[in-house]
Fold:
Amino acid sequence: MNNVKYDVSDMPKPGLLVGLSFQHLFAMFGATVLVPILVGIDPAIALFSSGLGTLAHLTVTKYKIPAYMGSSFAYIAAMQMLMKTDGIAAVAQGAMAGGLVYLLVALIVKFAGNAWIDKVLPPIVVGPIIIVIGLSLASTAVSDATMIDGKYSGTSLLISMVTLFAVILFNMYGKKIIGVIPILLGLIVGYLFSLVLGLVTGQEIVHFASVASAKWFQIPSFDIPFVNYDFKLYPSAILTMAPIAFVTMTEHFGHVMVLNSLTGRDFFQDPGLDHTLTGDGLAQIIAGFFGAPPVTSYGENIGVMALNKIYSVYVIAGAAVIAVVMSFIGKVSALLNSIPTAVLGGISIALFGVIAASGLKILVENKINFDNKKNLLIASVILVSGIGGLVFQIGGLQITGVATSTILGIVLYQILPEPKVDEA
Structure:
């Protein structure tokens, strides 16, 4: 390892520890609170659950892996649909079901090893699925960027484009920490531009009154089963969200591999893939229990570590504690809820596109041959069924396009024969 400043088990001095932890908080903040805002969930709950989930993950992995857990974008489409039909109770149940999938796979890995995973989720399946996750949200992003109350708005378009280009510029030209938090900085630019534009035009673009009236200390609006609502089983939510766990699992494997490279360790062996999966699953169950979006390990925070060469798990734990504390500051929650939809739309255009591009990257890096008929058919079916929103519905059971395309991709890979050499 080159130029390591603080290794995994090193603890910086208290003052520096706090500063470094805030840096990680800023890195994950924009994306973590964006997910609940897009879905219609109190962002404070997401902050709370991301911090608590991170501490749970650190504990399960024996404080050996510096990974931060933030809101997952993979579940957005499913959560938005469920919020419109069955509400937060169904979302919570689906999130916990996804966490149980992690625990089940962790149990299998513990006793059977992990060689089978590549056979179930090869790059030709994973790549198109990630593309689907990004592009299935494209219409939502554009709608948020251009519409107000169902009508086209030039003001919204202007705000969203200013926000989008701010994110692009910060990402392309930002130095050091600025280049790591382009989403947060773009959100701030879009918010400030909306305030100024509202003052100039006389429109109420930012509803700031709620921020002024909010309390400094406020308990997040948790939606806890058996406490906030009577228990009811939502099979459609389980069947919709549980399969998506296999998609976020691929992100998990990739993040662990990157951390292996950064730290010069093999986390697949120590503490073991079964522990890392269990940590992710437990964090997701915690998020679902409190009514927050499912969480997953964050590449943004890995980017911070790659930049500053500080891999301390204590810094990650510090960021988690700060996130939990911030979730109880009422004015923070009100400020987040006052962000104009157009600002979120501008961010979403960049963010969802990056998700789709990540799927393309997997295909390119693995040199997938599309002259191979099997590869071509698998990718085609996944892309069209997923982006087109192919839904399976039997009675009250409904499986969304993302989940359907995932299942189809896995099944096709297993049943389609490899083409002959002269056909490939």
Remarks:
- The longest strand covers residues 69-71.
- The chain has one domain: 14-370.
